[in-house]
Design a protein that fits this description.
The protein is α/β, with parallel strands linked by helices. The chain contains 20 helices and 14 strands. The relative contact order is 0.15. It has a six-stranded mixed beta sheet with strand order 4-5-13-10-11-12, with helices on both faces. Strands 9-6-7-8-14 form a five-stranded parallel beta sheet, with helices on both faces. It is globular. The structure holds pyridoxal-5'-phosphate. The site of pyridoxal-5'-phosphate has 18 residues, from α12.
């Protein structure tokens, strides 16, 4: 039994149980009960799949045999992971070489493998997306038998490229555009999970970043950092919205990945940076920004980070810091990088700004910024800023030509409930 419900700590379940029922008693979410160091041989390996198998075996306490993990990892992580160095002291970890051009392919594809192997009956996955989860989940599950997927997203608040990538698939993929922001979508999902009529009609599961399958999948690439870079990392900057990716980096650090300090970079939705300043949790209304996948003011995953540091909050402030970046600063970085021949998407730009402000101009610092999406995924934003057309990968041009199949709904729970009950 390897996962603990952070809101009801007497509830300890297996990985499989946590994946199939991601919300436990008292609406709690799960976290590894204990984080054990990885053997140093694993960090010495250059083989990403081997590192991933060892990471997942460790975090799930051996619950899934290594041969099975090997198959799952082989199918889920079937695309490259790479590092681009901007200069000898500053590197970019490109996590966007998967089918939907954002890091969420890692988590979504591993979750799809888990559900395909753990689930023995028809299931309905409901998830809210601030942009990229939708595409990653839709592509990971499209055509998987016995699984229906319902994806909610905030109408008019995601890019055209993002929207077309997942709202054009059809078949077992159902998309809903909600008149509201991401937090409103997330609330509808939470309410659905608490509704008995819906639970009776559907065998529900969630694919958003609260699912531990996504979390553990994301730890794998941080544990692969020694395979990609020959020096330990001083500051690792993670562009953050719902804080799943930062939580994964925190777990990797605890497992022994050579990372000295984590920096969460947010846009002006700055609940966490303000928490680091005055230790109070005061979410404001979500504001729209250029880095829309991070337009989150009540990040679900932050409770996992607090859970880890509950006994010693002061060490949290040693291990991590947080910064908020404006849209003007984001645009500046996009222009600056383009001039130097490297295009970055707005989320990655937020991360780069955070390190630019903190990287000393002297010394031998070795810092890394996580690049969460391919620049072409935000072509409309980049074309606007750079005033030049962008070449798009075929995954995007093909999707742009297909009809959008989304169902528009209000942010009223009753409407969503009717929709779900009519589906079954
Ligand atoms: C989801 C997403 C983020 C934020 O990741 P979290 O794990 O929610 O903090 C950042 N950038 C992009 C491109 C994303 O899709």
């Amino acid at each position: 039994m390897s996962f603990i419900n952070i809101a009801q700590q007497k509830q300890i379940v297996s990985f499989k149980e946590a994946v199939l029922n991601p919300i436990g008693d008292n609406k709690g979410i799960y976290f590894p009960r204990e984080i054990k160091k990885l053997d140093s041989n694993v960090f010495a390996s250059k083989d990403f799949n081997h590192i991933a198998v060892e990471t997942l075996y460790n975090l799930t306490c051996g619950e899934i045999p290594k041969v099975q993990l090997q198959h799952m990892v082989g199918r889920a992580f079937n695309f490259p992971l790479s590092v681009h160095s901007l200069n000898p002291q500053l590197h970019v970890l490109e996590l966007f070489h998967g089918p939907t051009l954002a890091f969420k392919d890692f988590g979504a594809r591993f979750l799809a493998e888990c559900l395909a192997s753990f689930n023995k009956k028809q299931a309905t996955i409901i998830t809210a997306t601030s942009g990229d989860t939708g595409a990653a989940v839709a592509h990971a599950f499209h055509g998987k038998s016995d699984i229906d997927v319902v994806i909610l997203y905030p109408k008019g608040k995601i890019s055209k490229e993002q929207e077309q990538l997942f709202c054009t698939l059809g078949d077992n993929i159902h998309t809903v555009k909600v008149d509201g922001d991401f937090d409103a979508c997330q609330n509808l999902v939470k309410q659905a999970f608490n509704d008995n009529d819906i639970k009776q009609a559907h065998n529900l599961n969630s694919a958003n970043s609260i699912n531990v399958a996504r979390l553990v999948a994301q730890v794998c690439y941080y544990n692969a950092l020694p395979a990609l870079l020959d020096k330990p990392i001083d500051k690792l900057v993670v562009p953050s919205g719902n804080f799943g990716n930062l939580t994964a980096a925190m777990i990797a650090k605890a497992m022994g990945a050579p990372i000295d300090h984590l920096v969460a970079a947010t846009n002006i939705n700055d609940t966490v940076p303000r928490f680091f300043m005055d230790k109070t949790w005061r979410p404001k209304e979500t504001q729209r920004t250029l880095s829309n996948a991070m337009d989150v003011s009540q990040p679900n995953n932050f409770s996992r980070i607090l859970y880890c540091y509950q006994k010693n909050l002061e060490t949290l402030f040693d291990d991590m810091s947080a910064m908020s970046i404006t849209d003007e600063e984001t645009q500046e970085i996009i222009k600056q990088q383009a001039q130097q021949g490297y295009q970055v998407d707005p989320h990655t730009a937020v991360g780069l700004k955070a390190i630019q402000d903190r990287q000393p101009t002297f010394g031998s610092n070795n810092n890394l910024v996580v690049s969460t999406a391919h620049p072409a995924k935000f072509a409309d934003v980049l074309e606007d800023i750079l005033q030049q057309p962008m070449e798009l990968p075929s995954a995007i041009t093909e999707a742009l030509h297909k009809p959008n199949l989304s169902k528009p709904l209000s942010n009223d729970f009753d409407d969503f409930k009717d929709y779900l009950l009519a589906m079954s």
